[in-house]
Amino acid sequence: MSADPRDRRTRHGVLLYTDHPERSILIDTPTELRLQLIAAGITNLDAVWFTHGHADHTHGIDDLRVFTDRDGRRLPTYADHENAVFLRQKFQYIFDEFYRPVGGPKVNLDLREYGPDDRVDVCGVRFTPLPVPHGDVTVYGFRVGNLGYITDAKHIPPETEKRLHGVTTLVLNSLWFGKPHPTHLNIEEAIEVARRVGATRTYLTHLTHRVRHAELLERLPPGIIPAYDGLEITVDQAQES
Description:
By secondary structure, this protein is α/β, with parallel strands linked by helices. Helix content is 24%, strand content 26%. The protein has 8 helices and 12 strands. It starts with 13 loop residues before the first strand and ends in a 15-residue tail after the last strand.
């Protein structure tokens, strides 16, 4: 009911642009993916990184078809082993190489698996996986250069926090102020994580509609910023050591 457009939140996804090499890497395929891509004017994708298999992060997967059909190529798609198994089961009609739909093409994805300790080359960009617990599944955020990205975390394990050392920009999930949630950080918990990581700026995302953007601007400490749909930020791509 808010008149502030920053309060009109669709499900969470990110498009990562890199200059060297020039790539467009999609993070998750949320339910409103088609609308999000149209709003952002996206005409090309080079790869997809799945954080986990939950519906709000995967059920826009069919809207990748326009890219693979138009370009006539398999789109590199990355998931850890557990979530790759889940994706193959849930979207068997996509990942079964022997299945051919009647009357049209299917989404043509090249699903590539990685482990929690791998350094993953995604179209020439180095991704460091950041595993975090989310209920009974493990979610995989990532680090690229000075950017750390974590969604759907309840807490940050010590090894993952160590991998975040030195990032200047952190993207971190949080729900609301107050009542703890069993599988997500609330805002107070996210603030504490941000303080420990020590990034110059932390963007809170995956927010619910229980808290409005204007309230967040008033209550968040310096350096912690509420994200919103359509937000664009620039991050130094320098690689971590």
